[in-house]
Amino acid sequence: MKLRWMFALVALMVIAAGVILAMTLNEVSSQWVVYIVEGIMLFCLVVLLLFYRTTMRLIRSVSNGMDLLREQDFSSRLAHVNQREADRIVDVFNRMMDSLKNERLKLREQNHFLDLLIGASPMGILIFDQSEVITMGNKAAASFFGYDDSSDLIGRKLIGIPSPLAAVIKGMQPETIETVRLSNSKIYRCSRLSFMDSGYAHPFVLIEHLTSEMVKAEKKAYEKVIRMIAHEVNNSVAGVNSTLDTVASMLEEESDDALHATADVLRVCQERCLTMSRFITSYADVVKIPEANLMLTDLNERVYACKEFMESMCNERDIRLHVQLCDECVQVKIDNVLFEQALVNILKNAIESIGSDGDVYITTTAKPATLTIADNGAGISPDIENKLFSPFFSSRPDGQGLGLIFISDVLTKHNCLFSLRTFDDGLTRFSIRFK
């Protein structure tokens, strides 16, 4: 039963009791007694009405407060009802609303700061829901996966993102940190962690780009080692060659056939020393790549200029070269000499991967400006894909691991994005994207 109906019922009971009492007293008492009783009853009704109004004002105030809480309107306040006990409740409620408003404002400011921090962070950040769907990501993470904006990641799963980095993160165990090197020579430190929200663990991923720091550290280390080895070997080889040349010349002047045979052996040793010197020098040349002198160039013209030379390389092994250039002019900033050397190295690797009787495809696109060299050779196994651009790594038994280091260094100097992978169609593609 509602409160107002309870008050109405009490009022009716008081009135009925008064009427019955007045009728009874009218028969046994004087008229003045009846008037006094009726006055008392009327006074009780007035007090009851005042009590009802005060109680209802308090109840309406509490009801309004509940509505404010339900609508999360923490800026409004309750007015006093001019009743001491009720106003104490109103004051407590208003102080609670002030506290909730301040906490909500503080939380909004912290969330806004966190959003700005995530957006401006050079570290890639991804937040997932319970179904492993990306609910939040920043621009750095989008660029790591090859997208232009973080909105391209929202609502997607890692399994649906065509990126080697996404595959690596997908395979990581919860609460682990891994440093990975991908087939595009990029190095990342990936942390797969979680935080609690509303009683549930929400996974998130931090991606730190370490390529420039790692490459600089690796290059500084192997440059020092190469210079030291080259210096010592070349100095020693120079002295040994000089001695061998002198002794061989002296033996050749003799008439004894045995001495002539010994001289021939010394010449072989001398040639072997020169070969070792050239071998060491080839390593030393890797650390002497000059800075790129970038000039605006038509990529199609540069590829076409190298076509005849590349065809001669392919014809020696019965390999067919297919060049498909974009109809539009593809303007890029490159150092013609360095880029041609890198292009020749890429093509050489493709030819060696095929061996003989295969196909090489060279294609260009304008938007975005890209160059792709594909071959149908042996391919790259997943085991070595992420080691390709490691210093001095080679998948061939007789390889020195210099070609990919040179290519990586040249393309990095050109600010290019590149990758080397074998796809499901059986083609191994070296893709270069120009900025």
Task: Describe this entry's structure for a reader.
This protein is about 55% helix and about 15% strand. With about 425 residues, it is of the alpha+beta class. The longest helix is centred in the middle third of the chain and has 42 residues, at about 210-250. The protein starts with a helix and ends with a strand.
Query: Gyration radius, to the nearest Å?
Result: 43 Å
Low-pLDDT residue spans: none
Strand order of the largest sheet: 2-1-5-4-3
In what range is the share of β-strand residues? 15-25%
Rounded mean pLDDT is 78
Number of continuous helical runs: 11
The secondary structure category is alpha+beta
Number of strands: 12
What percentage of residues falls in helices of 4 or more residues? Answer: 55-70%
* Cα distance spanning the termini: 76 Å
- Using the alpha-carbon principal axes, give the shape: rod-shaped
* Helix-strand sequence: HHHEEHHEEEHHEHEEHEEHHEE
Give a quick account of the main beta sheet: strands, pairing sense, barrel closure. Answer: 5 strands, antiparallel
Quick overview:
By secondary structure, the chain is an alpha+beta fold.
Which SSEs are present, and which pair or pack?
Blueprint: H1 3-28, H2 31-71, H3 84-120, E1 124-128, E2 134-137, H4 139-144, H5 164-170, E3 176-181, E4 187-197, E5 200-209, H6 211-252, H7 257-286, E6 295-298, H8 299-315, E7 319-324, E8 331-334, H9 336-354, E9 358-365, E10 370-375, H10 382-385, H11 403-413, E11 417-422, E12 428-433
Helix pairs in contact: 1-2, 6-7, 8-9, 9-11
Task: From the structure above, extract its key features.
435 residues; 5-stranded antiparallel β-sheet; 11 helices; 17% strand
